[in-house]
Amino acid sequence: MPKLKSKLPLLGHLMPDIALFVILFPGVCLARQLINQDCGSTFCGNLNISFPFRLKNQPPQCGLYDFELECENNNSTTVVARKGKFFVQQIFYENYTIQMVDTSLDTDDCNSLPLSSLYYNYYMYVVNCTEPINSSLYIEASRCTTKSNTSSSLPTSHFYFLDAKTRPSDFNQACTIEAEAPIMVENITGMSTPDIYKKLLEGVWVKWSRCQYQSCYKPDVLKEM
Ligand SMILES: *[C@@H]1O[C@H](CO)[C@@H](O)[C@H](O)[C@H]1NC(C)=O
Ligand SMILES: *[C@@H]1O[C@H](CO)[C@@H](O)[C@H](O)[C@H]1NC(C)=O
Ligand SMILES: *[C@@H]1O[C@H](CO)[C@@H](O)[C@H](O)[C@H]1NC(C)=O
Ligand SMILES: *[C@@H]1O[C@H](CO)[C@@H](O)[C@H](O)[C@H]1NC(C)=O
Ligand SMILES: *[C@@H]1O[C@H](CO)[C@@H](O)[C@H](O)[C@H]1NC(C)=O
Ligand SMILES: *[C@@H]1O[C@H](CO)[C@@H](O)[C@H](O)[C@H]1NC(C)=O
Ligand SMILES: *[C@@H]1O[C@H](CO)[C@@H](O)[C@H](O)[C@H]1NC(C)=O
């Protein structure tokens, strides 16, 4: 077995956590609904925030705490995941779908990497290696065309994307998993670095569970679209 030093305590969970919670405890779900109320809609920029979502600074009785979002500068809506943060791009109340993108993907900086984790059907590993890996399985993660000159005294880091289905025997011992980045493709093998970033910037679509009249529906994370 290769030594696989994962820095992730668990898979990053967000919406599926909530869903699991309401499926396991439908009574709790009802109780929460009675306590928490629909306070109508509020806006963060032009994003409509309505029940079950709430904003951090809304009155405490509005919406559900498990669906709490943050509004930054009345401009961007974010949600905290197990690891990292995601921007909420769109909320479709009609089909219980939320579209989000990793906040660590600052498009202006070629050094930024998708380091937020979320439980999702499709994801890829982001690994940090102490040496360059010459393997077609290891897809270069850096978008920078010219490498910055790092002083030779500093340990060098080489970041790669690895498909989620990579066999344990293909994990290089020089690498550490930094994130399980959600991506809406089934298999990243053979994809180019720009293609992966293009996909990442489209975000991921996640369904939240519907919980009404004591019935809770199992959410399904969307298939590739
Ligand atoms: C954002 O701005 C809109 C329009 O000015 C306002 O209606 C809304 O309450 C603001 N939202 C927050 C969270 O400050
Ligand atoms: C909104 O975000 C943009 C960057 O996306 C920023 O330049 C602008 O200052 C922000 N506006 C406010 C009111 O914070
Ligand atoms: C915001 O979305 C909710 C849920 O779909 C809807 O009922 C409400 O009318 C919307 N509010 C506005 C001002 O568009
Ligand atoms: C949800 O609804 C929006 C708007 O109607 C649509 O664009 C999107 O494709 C729908 N998503 C799913 C998974 O049905
Ligand atoms: C990558 O690993 C190096 C040590 O090998 C560490 O100093 C650095 O912080 C790591 N980078 C990230 C983004 O985790
Ligand atoms: C990487 O491996 C391929 C064959 O697997 C080889 O042709 C190539 O020279 C190697 N590149 C480096 C930089 O070692
Ligand atoms: C992923 O795609 C590659 C190349 O397209 C293919 O060889 C491989 O079998 C696929 N892996 C899985 C698990 O589907």
From TrEMBL:
The cross-references to Pfam families, in alphabetical order and at most eight, read: GUB_WAK_bind
The highest taxon in the source lineage is Eukaryota
As for membrane topology, the entry says: Single-pass membrane protein
Q: List, for all copies, the residue spans of the domain called Wall-associated receptor kinase galacturonan-binding.
A: 39-102
Ion transport recorded as keyword: no
Q: Which UniProt keywords apply?
A: Membrane, Signal, Transmembrane, Transmembrane helix
Q: Where in the cell is it found?
A: Membrane
Question: Would the keyword Transport turn up in this protein's UniProt record?
Answer: no
Question: What is the first-listed, main subcellular location in coarse terms?
Answer: membrane
- List the PANTHER family: LEAF RUST 10 DISEASE-RESISTANCE LOCUS RECEPTOR-LIKE PROTEIN KINASE-LIKE 2.7 (PTHR33138:SF30), OS01G0690200 PROTEIN (PTHR33138)
Q: Identify this protein by name.
A: Wall-associated receptor kinase galacturonan-binding domain-containing protein
